[in-house]
Structure formats: C-alpha cells, structure tokens
Amino acid sequence: MAKEVINREENYSQWYNNLVVKADLAENSAVRGCMVIKPYGYAIWEKIQAALDKMFKDTGHVNAYFPLFIPKSFFSKEASHVEGFAKECAVVTHYRLKNSADGTGVIVDPDAKLEEELIVRPTSETIIWNTYKNWIQSYRDLPILCNQWANVVRWEMRTRLFLRTTEFLWQEGHTAHASKQEAIDEAEKMINVYADFAKNYMGIPVIIGKKSESERFAGAVDTYCIEAMMQDGKALQAGTSHFLGQNFAKAFDVKYTSKDGNLEYVWATSWGVSTRLMGALIMAHSDNNGLVLPPKLAPVHVVIVPIYKGDDELKQMCERAEQIKKLLAAKNIVVKIDDRDNVRSGFKFAEHELKGIPVRLAIGPRDYANNTVELARRDTLEKCVVPVAGIDEYISKLLDEIQNNILAKALKFRQQNTIKIDSYDEFKEKIETGGFFLAHWDGTPETEAKIKEETKATIRCIPLDAEVEEGKCMVTGKPSKQRVIFARAY
RNA sequence: CGGGGUGUAGCACAGUUGGUAGCGCGCUACGUUCGGGACGUAGAGGUCGGAUGUUCGAGUCAUCUCACCCCGACCA
Fold first, then answer.
1. Does domain A418-487 have CATH number 3.40.50.150?
2. Which of A53, A247, A427, A459 is the most exposed place for a label (fewest CB within 10 A)?
3. Per-residue confidence (pLDDT) for residue A158, from 0 to 100
4. What integer pLDDT is reported at residue A155 of this predicted model?
C-alpha cells in the first residue's frame, strides 16, 4: 500500500508530502502555509534541539529569549535589512476585537488601532540589537554569546511543508564582539558546528561555503552556509551563519569603550537553523518504505514486535521483550515494545519502517524456545537471527554502524552526482537531471543572474575548502580563481 | 500576484443529459485468524469548501469567494 503512494519516479514532491503524512510527522494547519508538527515529528525535533543546544553550550553560548513583536520603526534602521524583509512580514495593527453589529461574530475594533504597528519577527536582529545597546558599554561586556529558541514568521508567497512554512521553529544565535576578526572567527566556528551536526547526527554530508553577493542575507557582510544534496539531486540550504560587520551596531548605535579609551562600534554575527532540517532528514534518507532515521536522532532506537497466538503467548513474548528492553536500556538504547493486539505483526512491521525506527526485533515462539530474536535493520532492510545473550553489545555496535552507513550512503550519492564542468552547453544539458556542478564563474552578479534565468540553477556556495585553480568562467570566459557550486535548489 | 489543477464520510476517490448521496480503506460489534500491511457477517458515519444566482428541482450549470497542490515570480 505504501509503495503505491510513495512513488518517487512519479512526482518527488507528492512522494515527500505523502511520506510526511503517512509517517505521522506533520500536516498542514488551518492557517495559511503553517504546519502542525505531530507528536512523532516533534519528538525528532526535540532530539535535534537537544544535540544542537549541547553543541552551542560547549562552545560557550547561553540561551535567552526576546519578544515576538518588533516595533515597525526598528526595521527602518538598517536599510538593506528592510529591503530583504519588509515585503514578507505579518503586521499587527490592532489590539482588540468586538462583537459585530449584526451579532454574527466578531470584528476588529476600529477604535483599537495601534499607534505604531508591530511586526511579528521574521528574524530578531533588530530587537536584539536594540536590547544589546543597553547591555554593552565597555570591552569588558564583550563578547555576548546568546542564542534563542523561537518561532518566526515569514509571509512567503509559496509554502512547502517543513521547507518553507509561514511560521517555523528555529534557533538564532546573536553575538557581539570587540574585534572584526573575533566576529569572523565566531561566524566560521558556528558554520562548522552546523556542518559537524549535519554530518555526525543527521548523517548528511554538507558543503561549507560562502554565499555570493546576490544570495547573501539582508544586512550581512558575509553569509556562510551549509549546502546538502537531496535524493533528487536538488540542493537544500541547511544552515547559515552571518558575519554582520558593524551594520547593526551602527543602525542601533551600539558602541563600547575599548581598553585604550576609544569609543568603537561592536562587531556582530548571527546564525540559525530551523525545522527545515527535518525536511532535509526526510528528503536525504527516505526510501519507498518510508523514513530512515539516523539512530542519533531517532526518538525510538529499537522496536520489539511480539509474534504470538493467544494471550498466553503474548504474555510470554512480552516478558522476554521486557528482559531485552532492560538490557538495552542499560546502554541508553530507547526501546518500544509494540504489544498492541488489535493489529497484526505484518502491519506493525510496515508501520515502524514508515516511521524510520532503526532496528526492529521480532520474538515468536520459535525464538522464545531458541532464546533468539529476529533482527531487522531499517537502513538496509536486512534480517537475521541473533541470540539474546549479548544482544545489548550487538545492538549498541549495530546502531553505530547504521549511523555510519546512512552517512556513507548519502556521501556516495553526493559524490556520484557532483561533477566538474567547463562547458556551459554541457551544463545546460546536465542540470536537467540534478546534481552539484563545480564550475568557474567570473564573480559578477550579472553572469549569475543570466545562469539562473537560463537554467534555474543558482550558486549554492563558494566552497571554503576549494583548491585554488586558475580557470575561465564557463559563460563569459573571464578569469576565475576557483570553482563554485551550481545547482537547482529548494 | 500570473498559469494549471483539486475541494464529496476520518483517509483516498467515483458520481452520466440537472431528478432518492456512492465505492474502497479506516471505524464499531461478533466470529475466525495472527512469523510481512488478514477474512467473514452486521452496523455507524455527509448541511457535497463557502456565498449568491438560474431552475419545479443543483454534488452537477453560472458568478463570486476561500483553502490546498503543481509550475512561475519571491524566498531559508
């Protein structure tokens, strides 16, 4: 049944949406472009949050919280920031409702108009820098290394579950520094934290790079990003880190007295990842049987399905399952025993595969007698029979292996779909089937725009670790010092 | 905001020239089943997205509107 619905060949988007629905992760809400994250989906988000939060704290950051509403005037202070965000904001204009005259419902009370409109935050730079102004006087107050977990709203014209919802959950780090170099180091440090997380937790290899001028964040001097490849060969920006220079310090007049008594503007960064990461997780690893979760982000590592006839056998199998659960729990492995007696085991198998649970154990009378279990791993769909004795060690190692295998598979896929290219004609032809293209570019926004116009491909990033290689722009033939990554993107 | 498509039971859909609201899955009860999405029998469940109009009569025709999906523009 699932196979009929989840058919990637037919329509990747359809497949993606159906997978989300079938795996019980999320659904569209009654509100335009918003999403309901269902309990199982949210459990995955909590795993992502927990892992990231620890990484932030290990790198010296603390959490704080800033207001949801931002006075409109704050947005007028940084010109390019306005340019980038003003058009896509939800605006609060009134503060009261009243019963309508005809008694059929409520209307906005025209007398309750706000003096100054409030913007629902699309990102928090402005309100945070307005606050930082009061926190910073001396070099002794620096650096400030704050992060907040929050929701933001961007009224995009077109939305897409997980990837571009009107409201989304994210974290945004906002730091303030005494020197330019320290801020640049911070921005680079955080993009590396993201890359590390993507690789080691999500099992998604990413390319670290800088955005070209036209793809840069509104208000940033430099935008660093991580770019991941999805299974259809399209690119997904999975995280960004911005070096903001002194733009926001100047806009909000944030100065500090340096060691030698001079008054100087503060240097800034901001960085964030969102629930879009879950979209990445789904689109990078899923197969026709459903999700494939890397063990480090799976809310449940092992599901045990008892195979039985009658209550006595059910009880017997569940007792054995409990023993195994206890063994595994001692190794921090989360086990769920699926003892529902209203669905058959085959149904349970299919359902847990759809949810991406890394390891499944089945225990039936045969296994009970032999003191074994049937073990199935989600990533390869292989099955084998293993003895109960030592199963904790076995599964502990297996989870590591699955984690590594998922990454290795994604990495191999990316390598197979990444090519160096020098001919624009060849590029135009090959971009149709997806993938990353390493090509020389003359560095001008005009050439970039032309390529986008003609092929729908954009520069995903200018890789940080690229080798210096003299070459000629594939379009204009002008000189270039390194290759950049072109791809079609979500 | 432009082009295309879809809104009918919890889900996925059918519904002919306008004439009593339908199928499958799921749900409830009972029975048989149970090592890869079981089967039988009996049931419950709908102001057909919304509004207005045409008509003796609208799920069906017309106008408007709302929501969702796809392609653009925009964007994380």
1. no
2. A53
3. 80
4. 85
Fold of the domain spanning A2-285: BirA Bifunctional Protein; domain 2 (3.30.930)
ipTM: 0.84
**What is the Cβ-side half-sphere exposure of residue A162, based on CA atoms within 13 angstroms?**
28
Q: Which of residues 33-62 of A touch strand B (CB under 7 A)?
A: 33
Which stretches of chain A score pLDDT less than 50?
1-7, 9
Instruction: Find out whether A279 and A344 touch, Cβ atoms under 8 Å.
Output: no
Q: What is the pLDDT of residue A5?
A: 39
Token pair of A210, please?
A: 């800088």
Q: What pLDDT does A369 receive? A: 95
- Which residues of A in 231-290 have their CB below 7 Å from strand B's atoms? 237, 240, 274, 276, 289
Could you tell me the residue ranges of all domains in chain A?
Answer: 2-285, 302-398, 418-487
CB of A209 under 7 A from strand B?
A: no
CATH superfamily of A302-398: Anticodon-binding domain (3.40.50.800)
Nucleic chain B contacts, protein chain A, residues 346-365, CB cut-off 7 A: 346-347, 349-351, 353-354, 360, 362-365
Chain B footprint positions (protein CB, under 7 Å): 1, 27, 33-38, 67-76
State residue A127's pLDDT score. Answer: 95
- Does at least one atom of strand B sit less than 7 Å from the CB of A86? no
What's the rounded Cα separation, in Å, for the pair A419 and A489? 16
pLDDT of residue A102: 65
Q: In this predicted structure, what is the pLDDT of residue A214?
A: 87
